[in-house]
Amino acid sequence: MNETNITTAAPILHIENMTKLYSNGRGVRDINLDIYPGDIVGLLGPNGSGKTTIMKVVVGLCHAQSGVCDVFGHPIEREYEQAAAQMSCLIESPALYENLSAEKNLMLAARVRGLGKQDALNALHMVHLDGYERDKVGRFSLGMKQRLGLAIAMLGDPKFIVLDEPINGLDIEGIVETREMIVRAAREKGCAFLIASHLAAEIERTCNKVAVVHEGELFSFTTMDEALRRSPTLEDYFLEEVRKKRGGAL
Ligand SMILES: Nc1ncnc2c1ncn2[C@@H]1O[C@H](COP(=O)(O)OP(=O)(O)OP(=O)(O)O)[C@@H](O)[C@H]1O
Ligand SMILES: [Mg+2]
């Protein structure tokens, strides 16, 4: 994604001064983030830093106390249907019907999006689960369930996809294929992604922008090129950003 698109296109996701705190006082504070068509934005942060919380607000699974969260120009809370029409997500573990086959799980998701059986089978093929159409999902391995969750998220070419730890449980081929699938959808279809991971190397390989999340705050948000201009690896960049915010100490 070049800088021209950043300034001319309307953002798919616009988050401004968003705060979501749970009843125990934990959560995220004052988040600002814009995502444009074709962007692959990586949320990088340690366990408990607030990545999933940001994503839950974005997809309407929980409500922010204050600030703005617009998807395709629609406030996610007040205009959920319009905001969510071209968005899909895979948050934490995939929500699957364990007693149903892979094909039936996909068909249910396809029907909700007005798609047919062929779309469901294409999605199954994309994640290399052909041959497992009729197997009950309850008997799938962790990685197979993750592949199926990814197939459901990609079904029908949504324009904005939110993926929480998408390579969780995947084997090496699955990791590479998932990365390629994401990059292809962004390049060829202008699909935008918000991806959470605590694996800096994976974010570095997949994303064109990175947001460092730490203790409920967004420490920095920049292009991958800029992050790698400042530091030799994204891991170094992350550690440096955390050090800066803490006034020198890690
Ligand atoms: N339902 C909840 N009720 C209360 N606190 C919560 C809830 N969900 C998350 N939290 C707290 O909010 C903070 C952020 O959690 P979140 O799940 O967003 O982190 P994360 O960055 O996704 O972590 P991980 O890498 O482990 O998935 C943590 O301190 C967590 O304990
Ligand atoms: Mg999480």
Keywords, separated by commas or semicolons:
single chain, alpha/beta, Rossmann fold, 2 domains, 6-stranded mixed sheet, 4-stranded antiparallel sheet, binds adenosine-5'-triphosphate, binds magnesium ion
Overview of this protein structure:
This protein has 250 residues and is of the alpha/beta class. It folds into 2 domains: 3-86 and 159-245, Rossmann fold, CATH 3.40.50; 94-157. Helix content is 39%, strand content 24%. The strands form 2 sheets. Strands 6-7-8-3-9-10 form a 6-stranded mixed β-sheet, sandwiched between helices. It has a 4-stranded antiparallel β-sheet with strand order 2-1-4-5. A hairpin with a 2-residue loop joins β4 (66-71) and β5 (74-75). α4 (102-112) packs across α5 and α5 crosses α6 (142-154). The longest helix has 18 residues, at 172-189. The protein binds adenosine-5'-triphosphate and magnesium ion. Adenosine-5'-triphosphate (ATP) is lined by residues 22, 24, 26-27, 45, 47-53, 198.
What CATH architecture of the largest domain would you give?
Answer: 3-Layer(aba) Sandwich
CATH topology of the largest domain: Rossmann fold
Low-confidence stretches: 1-6
Choose one word for the global shape: globular
Strand order of the largest sheet: 6-7-8-3-9-10
Rounded average pLDDT? 92
CATH superfamily of the largest domain: P-loop containing nucleotide triphosphate hydrolases
Number of helices: 10
